[in-house]
Amino acid sequence: MTTDLNLMLYTKLAGFRLVVLANRFGCDTDFSRELHDRLVEGLEAGMSRLRIMMALERSVLTGGDEFAEYQLEGEIEIFGRFAINLLDEIEIDFDTHEYRINGGDWVIALTADYTGVDLDYPELVSLTEDELGSLAPILEDITRETGIGVHAARAVHAWWSGS
Predict the structure, then answer these.
(1) CB-based burial, 86-115: b 16+ in 10 Å, e otherwise
(2) Is 72 left (phi over 0), alpha (psi -120 to 50) or beta?
């Protein structure tokens, strides 16, 4: 990415941040306000990454730091995988048969008894448009205009049927 493209993306993220903050005033539930707050945090994290990348690009262009080019390559790679998670995120370690949700404690998914061995990993279920409310079109716009994925999913177990 060049500085111009980064600046354009930064501007779009800043604009979406303002839209989300304005939209938050219409929230009527704590859950909706929390989703808005997490989206603002995610947009700010993306903006912060872009500021770092632009500073590294300036350093490379001026020749002020011999390691800046390597740092910039790393930041570009990291930003290429950047996504915003509004609710739950699952990490699964298939070697140890453990998982954790939202960076919490690791939980063993493997159980065994006289009936056999069972693996029970949770899965992510996307929030519905009704659950997202007025955020749904904003999330679509963010992804379409910036290429940054915004994930709004809840971790559930197959045996769990509540909401």
Answers:
(1) bbbeeeeeeeebbbeeeeeeeeebeeeeee
(2) alpha
Q: Residue by residue, what is the 3-state secondary structure of 117-162?
A: EEECCCEEEECCHHHHCCHHHHHHHHHHHHCCEEECEEEECCCCCC
Closest CA to 120 of 79, 155, 68: 155
In 3-state terms, the chain is what percent helix, strand and coil (to 5)? 50, 20, 30
**Encoding tokens for residue 40?**
């603002």
- Nearest Cα neighbor of 88 from 109, 107, 104 is 104
Rg (CA), the chain: 20
- For 78, the token pair is 């990291």
Q: Are 53 and 82 in contact (CB under 8 A)?
A: no
Per this entry, what is the length of the chain?
A: 163
- Integer Cα distance of 87 and 38 in angstroms: 8
Dump pLDDT digits (tens) for 77-101.
989 999 999 988 889 999 998 999 9
Per-residue pLDDT tens for 42-68? Answer: 999 999 999 999 988 888 888 767 788
